[in-house]
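dumping this here before i forget
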Amino acid sequence: MQTLPRLKAFWEKISPFFLTFVWLVPLLVVLDQATKWAVQNSLRPGEAVPVIENFFYITLVYNTGAAGGAGGEVPAMRIIYILISWAMSIAFGFAIWHYRKKHDVFLNLIISLCLGGAIGNLIDRTFYWPETVGFSGVIDFLMFYFQGGPNGPTINWLSPFPVFNVADMCLTIGVILFLVYLVIAYIKERKEGKKEDAAPKA
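structure:
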């Protein structure tokens, strides 16, 4: 009979840590790096392995630029992207520290996703150079075609969609969820404001 109260007390002690989602950050970084190196050790640059024919492929691409390879042809731009990655990681790290004791689970999840993604690509941009690992840039490997596959027509940037990785996914999901968070916060504010206006004044 004492088991349930003990479990409840134990959960009350550890739940603040789990609800901050701090644990998610190293997990995402490890997942990101493990998948990148699995592809790096299995494929040659440019080689593509079909997962779903004419739609989803695993390929190996080195990206020295921003998302989609923008600016990758300018060596000096990589330094700027490294500085941006460091700035983002530090900013998200401070955000986690600032909100660590708050009970806003949704916001904690968003910040952790963004921090995990930022660190994942930061590692590549900062440390992956020909002199250290034999190649240069961020390892990307997830490639999608939205019309006809490799032999189909090219439609702007949609076919194929710019190659990305797990860190990019985390950042994208984090940003989308943050926009949702802002919309929800705005709607709540409007509702509370209407309630205050409707309340009888003394």
